[in-house]
Amino acid sequence: MAVLEVEMSLYEAILARRSVRSYSTQKLDKETIPSLLEAAIRAPTAMHGEPWAFVIIQDKKILKELSDQAKTMLMTSTYSDQQQPSVKFFEQLINQDFNIFYNAGTLILICSNTNLTASEADCWLAAENLILAACAMGLGTCIIGCASPILNLAEVKTKLGISSEFTVVAPIIVGYPSDTPVRSSRKHPRVLANIQTN
């Protein structure tokens, strides 16, 4: 398949990637999704299992419904001390205008076949490939992990055409950023040991 032109090298994309939470209304070109999926399926996979499957949602009504359902679930859930969401996040949830998909026009679900070895790990590797490819194309992405519980409800999976052997692992929004993402810093790598021969 044809691969779209990219704006940066792989290493540049790794350094430039940011979680984007503000999107323009510009729609993705029809070649974009196939190119992103092609990048995703080139990820390493245990025992050649290729356990991934994808759902692409670009219907604004469905995205709004899923967002509203997820917000309700998140507000009524119980959390451990370690999982307790921030006050800011709860304030967003009670805002009727807040959309957990940040009004992005595209949501890609990477689903894992749970019958296969290391399927979830493989799908996260596929997610990183997709995200870096999107960054190189000038697109923004964000993993919406808080949507996973609602997306894995049996009735929601049925509505989205996801069969029972698959679990939604990585919900990723994709679109054109409405502004330039701010570069963030990271801590230095924590190396627990560096074992070499004498």
Description:
The protein has one domain (10-75, 98-175): NADH Oxidase, CATH 3.40.109.10. 35% of the residues lie in helices and 14% in strands. It has seven helices and four strands; from the N terminus they run H-H-E-H-H-E-H-E-H-H-E. Helix 1 (10-16) packs across helix 5 (119-136) and helix 2 crosses helix 5 (119-136). The longest helix is centred in the middle third of the chain and has 18 residues, at 119-136.
In a nutshell, what does this entry contain?
This is Nitroreductase. By secondary structure, the chain is α+β, with helices and mostly antiparallel strands.
Q: What is the second-level CATH architecture?
A: 3-Layer(aba) Sandwich
User: Rg to the nearest angstrom?
Assistant: 18 Å
Query: And the CATH topology?
Result: NADH Oxidase
Q: Could you state the order of secondary-structure elements as H and E? A: HHEHHEHEHHE
What would you call the shape? Answer: globular
Query: What is the number of strand segments?
Result: 4
Quaternary class: single chain
Mean pLDDT over all positions: 92
Distance between the termini: 49 Å
What does the main sheet amount to?
4 strands, antiparallel
Domain Nitroreductase: 14-176
Protein name: Nitroreductase
GO molecular function: oxidoreductase activity
InterPro entries: Nitroreductase, Nitroreductase-like, Nitroreductase/BluB
Secondary structure elements and their pairing?
Blueprint: H1 10-16, H2 32-40, E1 52-57, H3 60-76, H4 87-93, E2 106-113, H5 119-136, E3 140-143, H6 148-151, H7 154-160, E4 166-175
Antiparallel strand pairs: 1-2, 2-4, 3-4
